[in-house]
Amino acid sequence: MCKICNHHESILIENNHNGSNQDSFQKITDHWILREAEPEKSCHGYLYLEPRMHCESFSSIPPEAYKELGIMLELGMRWIDEHFHPLKIYTVTISEAVPHIHFHLVPRFQTEIKGLDYLKLALGGFLGKDR
Q1: How far apart are CA 48 and CA 117, in angstroms?
Q2: Where are the domains of the chain?
Q3: What is the pTM for the complete model shown?
Q4: Residue 50 gets which letter from DSSP?
Q5: Beta partners for 105?
Q6: Measured between alpha carbons, how far is 65 from 37 in angstroms, rounded to an integer?
Q7: What does the DSSP 8-state code read for residue 100?
Q8: pLDDT tens digits for range 66-95
Q9: Positive or negative: CA dihedral 46, 41, 117, 95
Q10: Residue 131 to residues 37, 41, 90, 125, 126: CA-CA distances in angstroms?
Q11: Residues 40-49: pLDDT tens digits?
């Protein structure tokens, strides 16, 4: 089982036993999990949007899941904007390190570092740390 699928299993077990997680933002639908990134990312408001079923390519995402995709992206963008007021929100998907399609919603707060340089720091968990 892949790293994301394992994480989803633990989220769903935790929610079934304890109700929703009050310590961090997450939204679960029939097809998607929208959740906060690990604190190690050092970027407030950083979210992941992941299909609940294991999908390694866009072509393996079921049509019903595509219907929810825009709604979930909008929900994540609005939540980030309302709670953290970033200068910009990047949305990126690479899915190389973990072969399970997923989106990174990464708020940018700095004006000095932008674009791919900022994303490299954010994805690596190096924002706010001595570089």
Answers
A1: 19
A2: 3-124
A3: 0.88
A4: E
A5: 47, 91
A6: 21
A7: S
A8: 999 999 999 999 999 999 999 999 999 988
A9: negative
A10: 21, 14, 21, 11, 7
A11: 898 999 999 9
